[in-house]
């Protein structure tokens, strides 16, 4: 095992061992999110200084919702994709899972942390996505 994989494994363990009650993450999922950084399973990282799209997540009290891609305009509005990924939120084994489904695929992601400003998700490939709350540009 190389040093990057060991580092990633240790990082995941730290997040999981210090995790809060996964139910506490649910209220923070709703809203506009943009990717800040991706840490791939091999330990390599990619930072995103600019995103031309943001993810909009909406989860209801019934723990069902959707995610869609939006493209912010300079006028403060959004161009939206007609594609929506259905999400079902499940708590299993003390973890919060997002179960996605579309007409073409199904997949699962695990929320490692969520608060009012940050969202950290890991997928089944062990790639971690760090999102920050999207703040629209203010040109005034």
Instruction: Quote the distance from N terminus to C terminus.
Output: 52 Å
Fraction of residues in β-strands: over 45%
Coarse structural class? mainly beta
Count of all domains: 1
Write structural notes for this entry.
By secondary structure, the chain is mainly β. It has one domain: Lipocalin, CATH 2.40.128. The protein contains two helices and ten strands. Residues 1-20 form the signal peptide. Keywords: Signal. This is Lipocalin-like domain-containing protein.
List the helices and strands and how they pair.
Elements: H1 3-17, H2 26-29, E1 31-39, E2 45-47, E3 54-59, E4 64-72, E5 78-80, E6 85-92, E7 95-101, E8 106-114, E9 118-123, E10 128-133
Antiparallel strand pairs: 1-2, 1-3, 1-10, 3-4, 4-5, 4-6, 6-7, 7-8, 8-9, 9-10
Which labels suit this protein?
single chain, 140 residues, mainly beta, Lipocalin, 2 helices, 10 strands, globular
Short description, anyone?
This protein has 140 residues and is mainly β.
């Amino acid at each position: 095992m190389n040093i990057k994989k060991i580092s990633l494994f240790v990082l995941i363990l730290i997040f999981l061992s210090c995790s809060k009650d996964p139910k506490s993450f649910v209220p923070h999922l709703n809203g506009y999110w943009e990717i800040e950084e991706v840490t791939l399973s091999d330990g390599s990282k990619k930072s995103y200084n600019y995103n031309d799209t943001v993810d909009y997540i909406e989860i209801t009290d019934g723990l069902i919702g959707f995610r869609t891609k939006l493209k912010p305009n300079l006028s403060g509005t959004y161009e939206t994709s007609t594609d929506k990924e259905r999400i079902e939120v499940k708590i299993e084994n003390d973890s919060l899972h997002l179960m996605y489904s579309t007409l073409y695929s199904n997949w699962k992601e695990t929320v490692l942390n969520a608060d009012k400003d940050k969202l950290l998700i890991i997928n089944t490939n062990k790639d971690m996505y760090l999102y920050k709350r999207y703040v629209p540009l203010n040109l005034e």
